Amino acid sequence: MTHILAIETSCDETSAAVVRDGRDVVSSVVASQIELHREYGGVFPEMASRQHVIAITPVIRESLRRAEMALADIDAVAVVHGPGLAGSLLVGLNAAKALAYGAGLPLVGVNHIEAHIYANWIRSDPDGEVAPVAPAFPLVCLIVSGGHTELVHVTGHHEYRWLGGTVDDAAGEAFDKVARLLGLGYPGGPLIERAAAKGNPQAYDLPSSLRVAPYDFSFSGLKTAVLRQVQEVQRSQGTDVTNRGVRLADASIAPGQVDMPVADLAASFQYAAVEILAEKTVAAAAEYGATQIVLAGGVAANKALRVRLAELAPVPVRFPPIRYCTDNAAMVGIAAHYRFVAGLRSGLDLDVQPALLLVAER
Amino acid sequence: MTELTMSITLHTTSPEQTRLLGRSLGTLLQAGDIVCLQGDLGSGKTCMTQGIGSGMGVAGVINSPTFVFVNEHAPVTSGPYLYHIDLYRICDLAEALTLGLEDYMYGDGVTVIEWADRAGEMMPPHCLWVRLTYRDYTERRLTIEAVGDRYVALVEALLLDPAVASAQIEVSA
Q1: Hey, of A37, A44, A361, which one would you mutate to test binding to chain B, going by the most B CBs within 10 A of its CB?
Q2: pLDDT digits (tens, 9 = 90+) for B67-111
Q3: Confidence band for A258, pLDDT divided at 50, 70 and 90
Q4: Distance of CA A69 to the CA centre of its chain
């Protein structure tokens, strides 16, 4: 049996986990900073790294306590070293290096995007069974989060071919910015989804994409199209407030200030975003003969996306439980296991790489 | 002493044209130059930066740095780095100061800052401001304001570019 202690601090979550044999999550602790960040409508990096410093030791200790294990029971220490915010990544990386050095354990550096993909390998966690069968290669993976929108063809462990990505805004970023335009708050994904449930997705015909390469995405035009609709409604009611400041206290639409069709706009936006994500992913799966489609990243939590992909796809679609879609260390431990058993190790000179790519050749 | 300033106003009718103007600007930028972009969501800041990167000849897809705050783009062959900064998530000067932007702005690359007005006080007295405003769904008005000898010379050179001359509607010194 192989036990890996994994650490993840690339963005707004301080997280540690113990993973067994690359499939089973023995413990997973996520100290979310989301309450702090909510006030800012986004991630505030300096605050993020300060909070990571405060939380990192208790979170690691708690992950070992819940696993009923000591460092002596651990075979390797895994950590995300990029991509992400430099100051935040440093906290996790330095903690992992110190543990590895102090306990004489091997260190395994993991790419944050790869970790998201491997969230699909989780067989069980403390709550019970998750997915008994591991994903089968070749597969096409859609990674969608606040900072990433990428389509990747995966032919085996650590064998990636990059098919395309966003040319402007990431999908999750578009959800966040549209949520702000509609005065819904942060994080945008779940708030758009909730608002959209009461709206008509056909109410507005929003342009879904610019002309881009077959597997590239563009969400900037869609975001602007929502903005135009908001401005038109405001203009018709004599209250154009879209140019106000960024704090949520003065979000674009103050409650009750204008009669904004928020639900219809949210539903129409979500429909357009989901259509383009699902269509391109299904087309890629067909072209590359994928046996499965795999979703990863925070936007994989979006139910409309899951449902639409399942409708369109000729092959099975799988996605992690929502608690493993957003950032967590369990997925890092899973990804690290397959590096560890392949003999891949990192030196103690491992550095943070804020712009680390999953596939260097594009 | 009066500061040398110059302002031109341009008009573009498509994202492609905004990108072309950025490209013209990009070919003229040198290490140490700072370009501050101001404009609402969807006004074309990232689009303009894509053009600047293309004119400079830097590597990598130029997409929104909103999430990561800074994207670094290395030159394909030679020339300066492009540091693409985004202050969308920043509320004020105090927050911006914690990002360590000075390392980029006073470093050896070209720095393009989206939402620069979010921390206007930390922008240097000499720089190039590009203010993008909506005219219509695809039309944009770009006001380029140069402060300081270097940037006035830059705008004068920019005016010689045919792509700029055709989009130009106003010059004031």
Answers
A1: A44
A2: 878 888 989 999 999 999 999 887 778 777 767 788 889 989 999
A3: low
A4: 29
Question: Which element (helix H / strand E) includes B111?
Answer: strand B110-114
Interchain pair B42, A147: CB under 8 A? no
pLDDT value of residue A152? 97
Average pLDDT value for chain A = 89
Q: Do B69 and A166 touch (CB under 8 A)?
A: no
Question: How far does A169 lie from chain B, in Å, by closest CA?
Answer: 5
Among chain A residues, the shortest Cα distance to B134 is held by: A228
The whole-angstrom distance between B138's CA and the closest CA on chain A is 10
Q: Dump pLDDT digits (tens) for B37-60.
A: 999 888 999 999 999 999 999 988
CB nearest to A167's CB, from B40, B61, B118: B61
Mutate to test the interface with A, among B67, B85, B134, B140 (most CBs of A within 10 A): B67
Give the whole-angstrom CA distance, residue A123 versus residue A22: 9
- Percent of chain A's residues with pLDDT above 90: 71
Digit-coded pLDDT (tens) for A211-231? 789 999 999 889 989 988 888
B41/A355 touch (CB, cutoff 8 Å), yes or no = no
CB contact under 8 A, A247 and B68: no
Domains of chain A with bracketed CATH:
3-130+321-341 (3.30.420.40), 164-318 (3.30.420.40)
Domains and CATH numbers, chain B: 5-172 (3.40.50.300)
